[in-house]
Amino acid sequence: MKKLAIIGLGPRGLYALENLLEQLSKSNKVVDIIVFENSEQLGAGYVWHDAQPDSNWINITERALSGIEKRPEITYADIVIEPFPSYHDWCNFSLKPSEIDTFPPRNKLGKYLVERYSSIEKTVKNLATFNLIKSEVKSINYSDNYKIEIKTANKAWICDDVLLTIGHQPTELSEQLLMWKSHATNQNELRLYDTPYPISELRDIKNNTGLTIGIRGFGLGMIDVMRYLVINNYGNFKVVDNATLETVYYKVKKQQLTLIPFSLDGLPLVPKPLNETIDNWYEPTTQELEFFKAEIETVAQSEINPKDINFLIAPMAKIASRIFMDLNENAVAHKLTATAIEVKILNWLADADYQDKLLQDEKIPTEQLIQAYINMALGKVPVSLDFCIGQVWRHCQPTLYKSFSHPKLNNDIIKKVIDLDERSKRYSYGPPIESMQQILTLIDANVLSLAFVNDPKINLISNGWHLTNSKEKSIVCTVMINSILDEPKILDIKTLLVKNLLDNKLIQPIHSELGIETSADGYVISPDDKPNLPIAVLGRLAKGSVIGVDAILECFGPRIVDWAKAYVAKLEH
């Protein structure tokens, strides 16, 4: 009997297991399945742990989680695995288009994922052909007899195939963070947190008084850190206007806490539209999405070798131009044709520094910029062209992610597409309006300062981190938190398993700054001397071969189905 190992059982590993069992059932086949997972939360993993605080919110609307569909009943190895409801059915989700979108805590989805996996395990755990190993895999070796050896700290297993779904992996610290870590170690009164998660690691400083805390990064991680630290024994948030989600921060006693976020450009995230009605302003038609798909696939899945990414930005500009024109009075006033708007969109997509009066002026004070984007998200003021493009991009992302999977293009072009998608995430992966309102109210409460948000000069001094802004104003932080998550650059990952795979030449990066090169069915494209390597990789580690790897909905997407079908098809031969 063939033996398959699945390493990693977060959301992606869970869906892979489900699809494997479903495809095996359809083919009337049974294999020996070994699942390795070191975290206590099977199905959820660390990111979606159901014990994390309520202050960690999902950054996509609960409405969009319709993509987590129900699991059908599966008959496998003479047992029946019961069906499991979709996320929306599980939580009885119901929301009118005019009602404000909800963004639940991540622990709510974590609970769903844990229950979904448990409903499988209670049935398959008694099978002799299913084994769950709660240990960390240290190495994978591929022998000359086409068998794979998997080792944990004290045991080894022999398998025929391996699927890696291990998600986010830590990378080597940057030179800056290494210097900061050394500085904090040498000064007893200083603290450095080199990662924002698990956020419970910050509990030691959560209710301290008189702290000035620097936060490296001005994105979603910063918001999680901010919210966790300020919802405490000294104060909390309260929404005072249910129509705009305007918020106040009320203090029950003095804490003298100061948060100092900063980033290289100091630009804030752009909140998502208030509700489905406003969000629909930016939704492309079915025909436009088909056009977008065809334009991308014509190039990405052919032997054409483009010199630029015009094949992506040209159809995007055409769609976004039409939508911006149709906004009428809801858009910044202009007297331009659709073609002229299209040219401006092309310029903006091609050049991050492009300036135009239809674009939001980002040189205004950051607090005003946040308020401007909040007002656009509320639908209360005419929207700028960049805001419109960002929302259209979000609606087009699922099509982009599917159409651009495993492109037959040179690696530099792939990197440019990914870089543009990353740039768009300031808009497309933006937080709820309420999160941005919380930033504003913390500024009013003198708890958070944006005075150093734009690339401050940082010097290490005996009593902390000395930050100086462009106006020569300075401040000293005694605590520093890095809220920026590592990019999945395979060559920088420090996990023993990944290092082992690289050392054994079982994997190779698709680009020096990206992840593992894989085929359309998820299998690793290895060096020439190891053809048909029976190792598959799904998710974040394959960034470059696929894009959109960070989205929770991609954990329940077609790539996982493609792998399961390909694996079962291999059993036929």
From TrEMBL:
UniProt-listed Pfam families: NAD_binding_9
Q: Which domain of life is it from?
A: Bacteria
Q: Which InterPro entries match?
A: FAD/NAD-bd_sf, HpyO/CreE_NAD-binding, L-asp_N-monooxygenase_NS-form
Q: Which residues form the signal peptide?
A: none
List, for all copies, the residue spans of the domain called FAD-dependent urate hydroxylase HpyO/Asp monooxygenase CreE-like FAD/NAD(P)-binding. Answer: 5-169
Under Gene3D superfamilies, the record lists: FAD/NAD(P)-binding domain
Protein's recorded name: FAD/NAD(P)-binding protein
What is the originating organism of this protein?
Answer: Winogradskyella bathintestinalis
